[in-house]
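I'd like us to work through together how a protein chain folds, taking it slowly. To get us started, please write out a protein record for me. Go ahead whenever you are ready, and we will take it from there:
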Amino acid sequence: MHLWNNAKSLSFRKLSSKNLIAMDGTPAPSGESAQNRLYIKRGHVVNHDGMQQADIYIEDGSIRYVGSGADFVVPGGCRTIDATGKMIIPGGIDPHTHFQLEFGGTVAVDDFYQGTKAAVAGGTTTVIDFVIPKKGESLLEAYDTWRARADTKVVCDYGLHVAITWWSKSVRDEMKILCQERGVNSFKCFMAYKGLFQVTDSELYEIFETCKELGAVAQVHAENGDVIAKNVQKLLAAGVTGPEGHELSRTEEVEAEAVNRACVIAHQTKCPLYVVHVMSKSAGIELARARQRYNGVGIFGETLAAALGTDGTHYTDQCWHHAAAHVLSPPLRPDPTTPEFLMKLLAQDDLQTTGSDNCTFNKNQKELGLGDFTKIPNGVNGVEDRMSVVWEKGVQTGLIDPQRFVAITSTNAAKIFNIYPRKGRIAPGSDADVLIWDPQAVRTISASTHHQACDFNIFEGMKCHGVPEYVIVHGRVCVENGLLRVAEGQGSFLETPINPPFVYDALNGITNRNGDDKEARNGLQNLDLNQKHDVPDSYALPDKYVPGPALSIISGDSAVSTPHSARGHRPDGTKDMQQSTFSISEEMDTSGNRACIRVKNPPGGKSSGFW
């Protein structure tokens, strides 16, 4: 039997644009060569702004027709797929991946081939990775390194953000070159990783000013690195060395403070800001407050599949390897109600996108942190499972409808990074990155069946409704009924142009572009930048802060009703957030020496001390 019939996942060497062979040398079936004509009939086309029953015609990698089958003559030599009962949606866009990243003395196991292959398997057809220069390294040289790693390996289109890990005039000059000549429109700053990547507030201000001058989008990893460094010292001195120390050193308040600070600095410089991986209720609330304070202009937020699909209770698992496998920064939060809360923020447009932050390390790599949690390589999986997890936690629960699903998994990222409507839309002229999505199909996530190189899956055992029956990348059927067929290098680098209208029009006071004020103002009309807007009642903001490393929130019913929801929401009960927060305090003995560090109110248990 040939490899075609007995393998779930097929990998190919690329001979030319029209010829694929399997890795064992078997020629691909003729119907699977680089097909340039495809007709999808009787499906329900879902975009972020509407749904319609329609047929789609694809030719030479582009969508050429969307409409009634009665008005279209199917050309000869065209493959037809019947999508009756299925949804036709834009391919997913993951705006946050780290493939082949060097971190903590090791390298992430998903390279650009394995990572994009897994992305396509799960319905993501575009990724945006991060160039992360070493301190003192040329941004252009680091960019060239990432391009060399990716260009010959990617199986779908990819773009690049660039991190600013140090600051000088030469860095400023290279940012300009990246924007004008290299197809980059976004730059990420770290407010954490003190001594490695962290920039100061003064540097942050100047970087934001530069981004605004260039028409770029500033991004931040928002955690207070100075506070984290002090907490780490206390915890290690007290003998707290396991994975639980990771979250204890960087609690919600530490993330929330940095989110607020970044939003204020961005507002002062009139620079658009995209806050990556919002991981806690407290940070989400600060972002929502900033958006409301600035009337929805210039502030955007991303959360992760990890934050929506699991939580930080795993850090106290008795198995060290299980706990360490969940370590990322900012960390997952022990409050088990966090995932639903963050999904509600997505429903309300207080958060706009979902990424994966895919940065995978195997068991032996995580063991670098045995005896010292600060040395555990940070990162989890998610690029393959993101789409199904978001559907399960959003649409299946009734918090969002399919249109909002398309927005938060594809369209909003395309708009923010200025690749819309080429990406993120089913329309004539758009790239033929298309999913035929079966909302009734169910799959169970497992490391034993995923396409990633890592040996652990943080969503292990999760049953997800919503599966891509077909994944079409640039008009090529790459996933069909569970069979994955991709060619190494079949994807291309995707330039992200500066001055994205979705981001900059509102900042620059431009309205009614193309007659659509909602597009120019991020869906909000008649905005007065000097007018104070009340917080919506659909979720409760904190009445007060309780002192301590953890941010305690006293809130009422957090149920949300979203205008996008086709099924309505599930009511919540009232929750006192003090029950699920905790803080670090030192206790002294009678001689005034530190006796222990005590964790107050740990999740699901009484106070505990680490001696």
